[in-house]
Amino acid sequence: GAVVSQHPSWVICKSGTSVKIECRSLDFQATTMFWYRQFPKQSLMLMATSNEGSKATYEQGVEKDKFLINHASLTLSTLTVTSAHPEDSSFYICSAPSASAREAQYFGPGTRLLVL
Amino acid sequence: GNSVTQMEGPVTLSEEAFLTINCTYTATGYPSLFWYVQYPGEGLQLLLKATKADDKGSNKGFEATYRKETTSFHLEKGSVQVSDSAVYFCALTGTASKLTFGTGTRLQVTL
To answer: Which of A7, A60, A103, A115 meets the CB 3.0–4.6 Å disulfide criterion with A98?
Structure first.
């Protein structure tokens, strides 16, 4: 089946620094990717939709300048958490849809971010 | 808008017990329905899906039937194993492939 990878899987950073998370579709092209955030013992919250060749679409309440998304190619989307603070510590997960909107999405393994 | 409601957990069962995790939804049109599973420290994996009414999705002994009349997609397994311990998410997809998730139900299976 289709595979989505994320890098890094785990990152610890100091408050005020920026962190970049990569999401790659390994064996298929994805014009759209989704970025989610998950707090401990909670469901996934959709942050934004990453669109290849155009600006990302952010969900209500998500700061565009805080969470920069770039969809550089048909197989790569990046999420940059700028000037990270401890409250940004979370589990970030990306996904890419299959060719059909009625089929499943393929999820990356997630990136755990800890901001000290 | 779309929404998914799951039974609250955690659900604790003994090995070989019968499992039911309830899921109901509200959606416009005819969404596809999914169950995803998340093992500790990992991302989500698709467990099963159903794309139209009366479809039954099944995988690894788990089953769920798309019930349009009751807007439900309950997850069942006849005999759970310790390795089934995880968090289970019911979800639906609407427009533009966006997924709407339920809150998740944690399952703990003990020997």
So the answer is: A103
B98 Cβ contact partners less than 8 Å away, ≥ 6 residues apart: A34, A46, A49
Model confidence band, residue A100 (pLDDT cutoffs 50, 70, 90): low
pLDDT, tens digit (0-9, with 9 covering 90-100), for B56-108: 999 999 999 999 999 999 999 999 999 999 999 999 987 667 888 999 999 99
- Closest residue by Cα to residue A101 from B74, B63, B92: B92
Q: Is A108 in CB contact (< 8 Å) with chain B?
A: yes
Phi–psi pair at A31, nearest 5 degrees = -75, -20
CB contacts of A44 in chain B (<8 Å) are 44, 89, 101
At residue A101 the predicted structure's pLDDT band, cuts being 50, 70 and 90, is: low
